[in-house]
Specification:
By secondary structure, this protein is mainly alpha-helical. Helix content is about 50%, strand content about 5%. The chain folds into three domains: about 10-65, no CATH class; about 75-190, no CATH class; about 215-310 and about 345-405, Intergrase catalytic core (hpI Integrase, Chain A). The longest helix is centred in the middle third of the chain and has 20 residues, at about 160-180.
C-alpha cells in the first residue's frame, strides 16, 4: 500500500536563489513553489513558513485557490520576465529583444526596495517613492554609486527615462492583474500615478535631439574610418535610421529603376505590421555600389572589410619593408592579445563609438547618428515640404516629421523679413 502524501511541506533551500522555499498543492491539484522572504534560516522566512502552514492546516493540506496575496514582488517580477522572454522577440530571428534587458534594469530598484513585499500590497504611494529614488539614485549600493561617479555618469535617471521605467513597472502589475495573479484593484491604483512633468519635479532634464550642422559633419568625415564615413553620408542623403543602414543587403534592394528602393529585413514598425520602404537616390547609390559583392545575402557594411581597408592603408604607408620576421612577430602579437575577430556587420553602438572617438581625437563638437536623421528631416522639409519629408522618413504623420525637423529658424527669419 502506497504511503499517504504528507500535507506538511518541507522548509528547504532553493538552489537557484539560495533563499528559503516551500512547495505545496493548490485546491485545483496543481503544485507550486513559493520563495520565502528573507535569507534561508532567518526568522522572517520561518515566520512566513508558519503562516503558510496555518493556511494549509485550515484547508485540509491544500492552499486555497485565491492565493494571490502570497505572491511577493520578487516572485511576480520573475514570472513576468519569463513571459517577456517569449513575448518580446525579434520578428525575424525569434530571439528575445533588448527590451527584456531594459525591463530587468527597470525592475532592479523595485526588487531592491520592495522585493519581499506582497504584490497585492504595492500601492500608489510606494510607486511614487520608487519614482523618487530612481531620479536620485539612492537605491544603489555604495559600490554602484562609486562606479558611476568614476565613469562620470549621473546617479539618478532623467525625467523622461524615469517615466519610461515606471511605465514598465506598471506593466508588470497590469499583466499580473490580467492573469489573476493579483487583484485588479492593485493595477487600477497604480494607474492613478501620472508621469513627471517638465519643470514640476526635481528630476534631471535632458537636452532634446537637435539636427547637427552639415559643416561639423563634413569636418568629421575625413577623419572617420572608411566604411563608417560612407554610412554617415548615406544616413544624411536618405534619412534612414542607423539601425536600418547597418543591416542593408543586396537582396533587400530593388535596383530596377533610376531610384532604388530598400526594404529592410527588420525595422522599428515591423512588430506593428507596417512596411518600410526607403528611396535611395543617385548620390547614395554611388556609395552603395562600392560594396555590392557576389553574395546578395551578405551585409554590405562589414567591420571585417573595414579592418582590411585600414590594414591595407597602413601597409601602403609603411616606410620600411615588411620582412618575414616582422610579419611573424606581428602575428604572434595579435595572437597574444587575443583580439576579437570583427563581426559580419556593424552595430549602431559601434558606429556611434567611432564617431565619438574621432570627434574627441580631432577636437570637433561631439555628435551621434540620430542627429543625422533630424538633419535630413530639416533638409527635406526645407527643400520639398513636410509631406515629402514624412514620406522619405517613413513617419505616420506630418506632426512627427515636424518634430524631427525642429524649429526652422531660417524659415522664421524669412517670414520676419517679408512680413514683420
Amino acid at each position: 500500500m502506497a504511503r499517504p502524501r504528507s500535507t506538511i511541506p518541507t522548509y528547504r533551500k532553493n538552489s537557484a536563489t539560495g533563499r528559503a522555499a516551500v512547495s505545496f498543492y493548490r485546491a485545483d491539484g496543481t503544485r507550486t513553489e513559493v520563495i520565502l522572504p528573507g535569507k534561508y534560516g532567518s526568522t522572517e522566512s520561518k515566520a512566513e513558513y508558519e503562516r503558510l502552514l496555518s493556511q494549509l492546516r485550515a484547508n485540509d493540506g491544500r492552499m486555497p485557490t485565491d492565493h494571490r496575496q502570497d505572491l511577493s514582488i520578487d516572485e511576480l517580477v520573475l514570472k513576468f520576465l519569463e513571459h517577456a522572454k517569449s513575448y518580446y522577440v525579434d520578428p525575424v530571428s525569434k530571439e528575445p529583444t533588448k527590451e527584456v534587458g531594459v525591463c530587468s534594469d527597470a525592475f532592479r530598484p523595485l526588487c531592491r526596495l520592495y522585493g519581499n513585499t506582497s504584490a497585492s500590497e504595492f500601492g500608489p504611494v510606494a510607486l511614487q517613492t520608487l519614482r523618487t529614488v530612481m531620479t536620485t539614485g539612492s537605491w544603489m549600493t555604495d559600490k554602484e554609486r562609486a562606479s558611476r561617479e568614476k565613469s562620470k555618469r549621473h546617479l539618478g535617471l532623467a525625467r523622461t527615462t524615469t517615466n519610461k521605467q515606471i511605465n514598465r513597472v506598471k506593466l508588470v502589475f497590469k499583466w499580473a492583474s490580467s492573469n489573476e495573479l493579483i487583484p485588479a484593484s492593485v493595477h487600477h491604483g497604480l494607474a492613478t500615478v501620472g508621469g513627471l512633468r517638465r519643470g514640476r519635479s526635481a528630476a534631471r532634464e535632458t537636452e532634446p535631439v537637435k539636427p547637427i550642422s552639415t559643416a561639423i559633419v563634413e569636418d568629421t568625415l575625413p577623419h572617420l574610418p572608411p566604411i563608417v564615413c560612407d554610412v554617415v553620408q548615406i544616413l544624411l542623403l536618405t534619412g534612414m535610421r542607423c539601425g536600418e543602414a547597418v543591416i542593408m543587403r543586396a537582396s533587400d534592394l530593388d535596383m530596377t529603376g533610376d531610384i532604388w528602393l530598400y526594404r529592410p529585413e527588420r525595422h522599428k514598425g515591423l512588430w506593428r505590421g507596417k512596411e518600410r520602404v526607403i528611396a535611395i537616390g543617385p548620390r547614395a547609390q554611388a556609395i552603395i555600389r562600392k560594396y555590392l559583392g557576389l553574395r546578395i545575402d551578405a551585409y554590405l557594411f562589414s567591420p571585417a572589410a573595414q579592418e582590411e581597408l585600414i590594414q591595407a592603408e597602413r601597409r601602403e604607408n609603411r616606410k620600411t619593408p615588411l620582412y618575414p620576421s616582422h610579419a611573424k612577430r606581428l602575428a604572434e602579437k595579435r595572437k597574444a592579445n587575443g583580439k576579437r575577430r570583427p563581426g559580419e556587420r556593424f552595430e549602431v553602438g559601434g558606429i556611434n563609438r567611432a564617431i565619438r572617438q574621432t570627434c574627441k581625437r580631432v577636437g570637433i563638437e561631439r555628435w551621434h547618428t540620430h542627429q543625422l536623421r533630424h538633419s535630413a528631416s530639416l533638409a527635406f522639409s526645407r527643400e520639398m515640404g513636410l509631406e515629402h519629408a514624412r514620406a522619405a522618413l517613413g513617419h505616420s504623420s506630418v506632426d512627427m516629421s515636424a518634430m524631427y525637423a525642429g524649429h526652422d529658424v531660417e524659415a522664421a527669419k524669412d517670414v520676419a523679413r517679408k512680413i514683420g
